Predict the structure.
Amino acid sequence: MKNNVVMVVNPVSGSIDKSDFMEAITIFAAKEKLNLVRYITSGKNDIQKVKQLYEKYKPERIIIIGGDGTIKMVAEAMENQDVILGILPAGSANGLAVDLDLMKTVDENLEIAFYGKYIKLDTIDINGKKCYHLSDLGLNAELVKNYENSHVHGKWGYLLQALNTLIDLGEPFLATITANNQIIKSEGRMIVIANSKKYGTGITINPKGVMNDGKFELVIIKNLDLITFGKIITGNISENSEYIEIISTDEATIKTNIPVSFQIDGEYCGDVKKLNIKIASQIIKVAVS
C-alpha cells in the first residue's frame, strides 16, 4: 500500500550504531504521515520474514539501513516483486552505494530513499546464487574469509586482514574461461565478476562497469607485483596492462585447477573449482536521485 514503508535494519553491519539512522527515518516518516514498519535483522530466517512483511503490508518502498550484504538479502527476498529499495549506507562494505553515488548526508539519503527516482539494475546468476554488485575468486575472497573469521571489524579489521592475506599469499591458480564463444586459459591471482565499477573502498576495479547494460565483466588479475597492486589500490587499473584482462559478456564459465576462495557481494561462499555465470532475469529497482 502506498502509505506503508518497511524499514530493514542490520544492527551489526559495519560496527556502526544504527540508532541515529532509525530515529531520523522514524521522524521523517511521521512528518510525511507514513506508516513505518520496522524490522531488525537477526541472521535467522531474515529473507522469509522480509517476504512475510511485504505480503502483509505491500509497501511501494523498503528502506535499508546496512551494507551490501543487507541489500543483497532484501533483494533476494523481493525477487519478482515490484518494490523500490531505498538505501542508507551503514555497512562495513557499501560498494553498491558508492557506485550509485549514495554516500551522502542522512538527510539527502532520506529524501532519495523515500521519494527519489529509481533505476533498474541487472542481476548476475552465479551457480544459482544472485550477485548484485561484485563477486570474485582468489585474493579478495580470501580477505573476506579472513575478515569474517576475525574479531576486529571495521576499517582497521579490513586493513589487518589485507596485510595478513598478502603475507600468506600462495601460488596463483590456473583458470579456463569460456565466454563469447572463446576459451581463454590464464594464470590468476584474482578474477572479479563485476556488475559495477567500484568496491566499497571506492577503488575502481572495473572501468567498463555499467549496472544496467545487460552485461557483466570478468576482470582477470594475472599477477600481483607491487606495481599492479599499487594500480589497483589507487584506482588506476587498466585493461591495457599485460597483467590485467577484462572480458565483457552476458554468460561465462570459469574452471580452476584447484579449489579457490569465492565471495558474492561481500559474503564468503567457500572454495570452488567451477562457476557458471549469466545475466539473470531479475531486475531490482533502487532509488538513486
